[in-house]
Every structure is written in structure tokens, then in C-alpha cells.
Design brief:
By secondary structure, this protein is an alpha+beta fold. Helix content is about 30%, strand content about 30%. Strands 3-4-5-9-8-7-6 form a seven-stranded mixed β-sheet, sandwiched between helices. A five-stranded antiparallel β-sheet has the order 13-12-11-10-14, with no helix packed on it. It has a two-stranded antiparallel ribbon with strand order 1-2. Helix 2 (about 20-25) packs across helix 3 and helix 5 crosses helix 8 (about 245-255). The relative contact order is 0.11.
Amino acid sequence: MKSKILHLLKEGTDIISGEELSSQLQVSRVTIWKHIKALQQMGYEIISGPKGYSYTADNDFLFPWEFAERQNQIQYFDSLPSTMNKARELARKGCPDQTVVLADFQEKGRGRMQRTWLSQRGGLYFTLILRPQLPAISAFLMNFIASTVLAETIRSQTGLKAEVKWPNDILIGDRKLCGMLSELEASGELVSFVNIGIGINVNNDPTKDEKASTSIAKELGYEVNRRSLLSGFLDGMAEKLTDIQPEIAVAEWKKYTMTIGRKVKIVTLKETAEGKAVDIDESGALVLQQQDGTLKKIIYGDCFHL
């Protein structure tokens, strides 16, 4: 009902009366009034007057009804300990492919290597639940596709030169804009689900806590619409997932990488390695040329550009 009321208010060029809303939506005027009051309490700047209601302000809300035909895919929360934890719970219960768990704030956002992702209000924090028809060994492709689509979306909507640092951070220059984390569960040899958790610094300022980070608003000098970014990303993912081809997915990712060709240090839970990043192989591993000329493949770890 809130979605329908907002749609009529946005469509109207003038004040629309409670009686007209009641008639069009086939509910009582008291019901209309209650929903209007609830929307106002949520932050919607709906003006109430003797002649009815009007609403002209744009907004950056992430409520499901703001995503039109995609609203049934959106699981929105004002606050969560972690969208990844909630997504795992929903995935195990059988939620549909491309369900999105979205929160305005995370109390304990999860980063790679068991670190915490700082999740201030104003950022975009969500986990996308995917059920690709893939063998578990090929699930890494979801990270490559998501990184590529995210870089493309940021570039097209903001003009910023978003690039990918292996394995899947998004940077502007050498400043971290976005982090990504994935979890996989398989049934036999096939993927049951892959959850892609993403944190994007949009209208928040992370530099107080992370000096090497940045946000879209900090780079542009003004705030942008988070919902537009998320919708663009989800549209791009839906298109790419209709036809998953490993060679194409890796090749497209390479267009946006800033890691290949650079000297890097890779830190894993077991070791640290340095050398020149020369390629990504068919399994998604980074191929590192070490000082003695030997090649070393690294599947996962933290990458530092030297």
C-alpha cells in the first residue's frame, strides 16, 4: 500500500486528495491517513494540507517499494550485525536467486581475512544471493563478474575511473572505495548458493578510520543516489548471469584491473609473497613472477601494490 500511495503522489503534478487516493486504491481514508503518517515518520517529506497531499522531493531511501518491479527481491533492514550472516540464513532456507539483503548500517560488517568492514550510515552495504548452475570449482567466476559489473556501474553513473585490485577491491587511484567478500555452499559438486557481500563508500567519509580509503561523495564533492547505484549494479548482474562464459568473464575483468603488470605483495594466512603480477589463470588465481623468475599461483589473499 505504501508503494501504491507513493506512486500516485509521484505521478501527480498537484495536490491529491485523501478521497481520491481512497477511491483509486479501494481503501478507507483512515487507512490512507495511517499509511501517510507512517511514510512521514520514515522520512518522506509528504506535505499534508486541507486539500490533500503532495510529494515532490527526491530521496535516497532503500526501502523495497522504492525498487519497483524488483521490490520482492529486496530484504531491507535499518541495521544488521552483518548482511552476510542474514543472507546465509535466508539462502539456507531456500530464498530465490538474486535476493538482496540490504542494511543502512552494519554493527559488525565482515571484511576479508577476518577483518571488520566499517559500515557508517551513508554507505551502501548489501549481500547478493546467487544460485548459478555451476560446478563449485567455477564459483570464483561470480566474484569476477560482480567486480566487473560494479566497476562499470560506478564509471557510468559517476564518471569516476573505478578499477579492480585483485582479488576484488574497487579503487579510485590507490584509494579503496569498495570491498567484496564471498561465501559458497555446495551440494555435491554443484553450487548451492554463492553470497557476494559488498560494501561501497558512497556518501559516508571513511577516511577518519581508514586513511587509504575514499568515498564517491568525497571524490565528486557532492552526494549521489545510493539506490540508483544499487539498481544499476543489479541490472548489470542480471544481464551478465544469463550467459556465464568463463573466458569472457575473466577477460572482461582484466579490462578494469590495476594489478596485472605491477609489483605486488600478497599476504595470506600462511605466507607472504612478493613479485610482479603477470596474469590471472583459468581458476582465478593470481600468477606471480618472483624475483628468481619462477611463477607462483595464489588463489586468495590480501594484495598490496608496491
